[in-house]
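Retro notes, item 3 of 5
We never archived the inputs for the NAP complex last cycle. Fixing that now. Sequence and ligand:
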Amino acid sequence: MATTSNPVKIGLVGLGKIAVDQHIPAIRNNPALELVAGCSPQTRPDGLPGYDDMQAMLAAHPEIAALAICTPPQVRHRLAMEALAAGRHVFLEKPPAATLGEAESLRARAAEKGVTLLASWHSRFAPAVSAARAWVAARKISNISVMWKENVRQWHPGQKWIFAPGGMGVFDPGINGLSILTRIVPDAVIVKKADLHFPANCDAPIEVQMDLQTESGVPVRAEFNFLQENQQTWSIVVEAEDGGKLALHLGGTELEIDGRQVLKEPEHEYPGLYAHFHQLIASGQSDADFAPLRIVADAFMVGKRIAAPDYIE
Ligand code: NAP
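Structure as it came back at the time:
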């Protein structure tokens, strides 16, 4: 078992926005982990030994015990399969893969190799999520809404992969809302209807409206929009049969109960995720829940495709 004098040595695969903004500082601030190197076709952040690809990085640093795959989803499965085949623990950025089939093959391969697989959902580590889960568990719920509306030009500049096949379009942020939803409700969430708005020049939707239902019959309305200007919305509202109302705002950093703010904390999701990853490795376990990805896959299966204007970056 790794200790602070024997930290788990980590390599990063894909050195884009999320790796630089979150993974590098979260690993460096956790004394039980050691960031050894990173690889990416072109990007080379300062102060980190960098390689063109994962195999070159592992050849130079065979001491790396765990790999965090922070690439776009389209290439995640191949890289994660190689990492598992090489006997490394794997941290998958969200979404865990481009398809459910890929995700399930990773879960099976990790179990076969006896290594840890973490299918990470960073939004589940937002500060208000566990309080929301407890509130929901104590009540009979009558209605839920998930509103995830942000400006793609502000948050994803230059990320061509997001509108390419397998990039998921507005489901890329929307799946974060679904990851909180599937954490706070106790039963499975089923897709009843989905309207998927595809710009003519994109292979993934820019706007989505879904009618979902929990297995116990609670209706859930989900609306995702990638063209939201000014106020950005990352909110979930839950209404209970007793008249109670819970609202999570700003991705789960703020919690309101019956209209009164009861929690407001800065986000610190990635430190929590890496502590969880370390704990999983230390206890020889995996955490690979694909419920949010299943909702997205089902929406593509039953969804109606609606034409939207071209997306001009
Ligand atoms: P990004 O800025 O486009 O970065 C992706 C990186 O992956 C790029 O640096 C690219 O390399 C690298 N890459 C592509 N193919 C690779 C390969 N075969 N091997 C190694 N590296 C490869 O995207 P991002 O925003 O960081 O998002 C990446 C993932 O994190 C997505 O799944 C996204 O949903 C998730 N995520 C993003 C955010 C966010 O706020 N941005 C938040 C949470 C989760 P080069 O630059 O070297 O060409």
